[in-house]
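ESCALATION

Customer reports they have been waiting on this structure for their group meeting. Please prioritize. Original submission:
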Amino acid sequence: MGAERVERRLAAILAADVAGYSRLMAGDEAGTLARLKALRRELIDPEIAEHKGRIFKVTGDGMLIEFPSVVEAVGCAVAMQHACLSAAQASPRTSESSSALASTRET
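Update from on-call: job pushed to the front of the queue and completed.
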């Protein structure tokens, strides 16, 4: 019997979720979804790509993202938070959703 070769690799996983998602949805479901989709398309996804990340699970208010290193994962988390805070300060309309995204947790 031949021994099968097992391929191993190291990865860093970032878990992010929206703080206060239920409250935001209760207040304005359609608006919250639209703002979160726009923030993801315009801010979040580009940061993930820039840091060589790959989303492998999405939930209603969160996602799991794989990175090739801890350095890339932390860099992406910080960049996403800064981008969301900047968006919140620049546009009162997206302020609450952006601030909630800026409160994502890194684990």
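Sent to customer with the following note: The chain has four helices and three strands.
Escalation resolved.
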